[in-house]
Structures are given as C-alpha cells and as structure tokens.
Amino acid sequence: MPISSAFTDQVIWITGASSGIGAALARALAAAGAQLVLSARREPELQALAATVPGGPERHLVLPLDLTATGTFPAAVETVLARFGHLDRLINNGGLGQRGDAADTPLEVDRRIMEVNYFGQVGLTKAVLPHLTTRGAGHIVVVSSVVGYVATPHRSAYAASKHALHGFYNALRAELHPTGVRVSIVCPGYVRTEISLHALDSSGGRHARMDKNQARAMSADTFAARLLPQLAAHKEEILIGGREIYAVYLQRFLPRLVSRVLRRSPKR
Ligand SMILES: NC(=O)c1ccc[n+]([C@@H]2O[C@H](COP(=O)([O-])OP(=O)(O)OC[C@H]3O[C@@H](n4cnc5c(N)ncnc54)[C@H](OP(=O)(O)O)[C@@H]3O)[C@@H](O)[C@H]2O)c1
C-alpha cells in the first residue's frame, strides 16, 4: 500500500508533539492525509504546529496533556472520541532525557524520568485499549531508543525506562494479537532534536546543552520520513539512526566488547 493511502483520514494521536520527533511526525502524517491529535504540555507550540501543518487548525485537535497526570487520561480519550468518533493509531512519543551519574542522582529524579517515559506511555495506552480492542483494529506505537537495548553511562534512569518499555510492549503485542490491534516499538539512534536541552541532570534541573551527537545527527524530518513506511507496514521493531544502531547487534552477539567500549564513554 502506498504510504499516502495508509494514513489518509486516519485519526492519529501523537504525544510529545510540541518539538523534535513528535512535531516532525505531525508534519509528515498531516501531509500524508491524517487527522491528528497533538499532545504535550506546551500548548502554544502545539497551536503553532496545528496552524502550519496541512489541513490546518480546523482538521487537527490540540489536546494539552501532561504525561505524569495519568488521572487525566480517561477524559482526554473521551475528548478524542467525541471529536473524531474513533482512533486509528496512538504514537507514544513524549519523553525526557537524562545526563548524570547514578551515584549522584537522587531517586526522586529516577522516578520523574520513569513517570514520563514509562508510566505516561503505559497509562495512555491502557486508557485507549478498551476502544481499540472493541473496534478490533488499531496501532499502538511506542518510541523507545537504541538505549532501550544498550544502556549507556550517565543515562541509567533513561535506559531503565526505555528497557522497561520493551518488556511491557512485547508482552502487550502478544496479548493483543488476536484482537487485531498491532504494536510497534521504534528505536531511534541519534536524531537532531532538543532532547539534550530538556534532559534532566542529577539535580533534577535541565542539562540545557546541545550534545555533539545530537547536533550532527539526522534531522527529525528525515527521521519521520524514514519511519512512515515502517509504520504503514505495522513493523514490530523499527531501528532508525546512523552507525550507532549497530550497537544493538553488537550488544546481542558481543556483549563483553560493548561492555569494554562503554567503560570508556566520555561524560556528556
Ligand atoms: N533525539 C534523539 O536522539 C532520540 C533518540 C532516541 C530516542 N528518542 C526519543 O524520542 C522521543 C521524542 O524526543 P525528542 O528527541 O523529539 O526530544 P524533545 O524535542 O525534547 O521532545 C520531547 C517531547 O516530549 C514532551 N514531554 C516531555 N515531558 C513531558 C510530560 N511530562 N508530559 C507530556 N509531554 C512531555 C515534550 O513536550 P512538552 O515539554 O511540551 O511537554 C516534547 O514534545 C522521546 O521519547 C525520546 O526518548 C530521541
């Protein structure tokens, strides 16, 4: 099926749509004919995005959402269904990076990262599941990371949150198979976004620096263009990035080599 017809008039909910990968996915999916629900905390950024993507603000719904406020999710799902009548795909993309050694990072910071990156995604997924399973169709997408396979230093809570997503969504995929609802896990390598600026440091403040690896990586729009055909095909696991994605295979087949290389990782 050509990509354009795979998404035409589909209702697609994207979290973390106010910047980076989420905003780029919104541009690409709107251009492919989708009707979008755009969620994140920063409403002005979401409104500006809705105003500029194909279809404009009348076609898409801006729905501010804090991924840590799981109690608000049922009402958010009601709002989406009241507006569009159904949901075709949920893209759990919102996330928070980390820069800081485990020994210096209080547990409260680990919890904040887990709340956004793990419980936020899982909570919203559980809130939409009754609708998707009753309908007997739908696609749940979760954005993990290469770090969901290879735990790099200075990102212990982030790595834990992304590894946890694989456990949850792999189990969910098997459970949902008879219902017709599909599950994809997306693992980006480096993508040029604001993730390192927004990442939490060990004090719980913002890292606020653009990392070199992010600065020289592919753009979020290139990433989105590469992702769309794989989402159209409901691929179960999707790895997109530069050479760093080979680390996933090295981790699987040569784990001791990866362990030795990671010991020498510079602090970023
Ligand atoms: N860029 C990379 O190299 C890379 C690599 C691997 C994986 N990823 C993953 O890709 C996803 C998108 O990240 P990005 O690179 O596009 O970074 P980004 O530009 O910082 O975008 C992160 C998004 O998450 C949202 N978010 C953060 N905390 C939230 C909260 N409490 N509630 C609701 N939304 C929240 C932000 O919106 P608000 O601040 O407006 O709420 C923003 O829209 C993340 O899951 C990240 O882990 C990125």
TrEMBL record:
Q: Which domain of life is it from?
A: Bacteria
Give TM segment ranges: none
Pinpoint the Ketoreductase domain residues: 10-194
Alphabetically sorted, this entry's keywords are:
Oxidoreductase
**Keyword Oxidoreductase on this protein?**
yes
Q: Cross-referenced InterPro entries, in alphabetical order? A: KR_dom, NAD(P)-bd_dom_sf, Sc_DH/Rdtase_CS, SDR_fam
Q: Does the keyword section mention Oxidoreductase?
A: yes
Which protein family is named in the record?
Belongs to the short-chain dehydrogenases/reductases (SDR) family.
Which PANTHER family does the annotation name? Answer: DEHYDROGENASE/REDUCTASE SDR FAMILY MEMBER 7B (PTHR44196), DEHYDROGENASE_REDUCTASE SDR FAMILY MEMBER 7B (PTHR44196:SF1)
What's the protein here called? SDR family oxidoreductase
- From which source organism is this entry? Actomonas aquatica
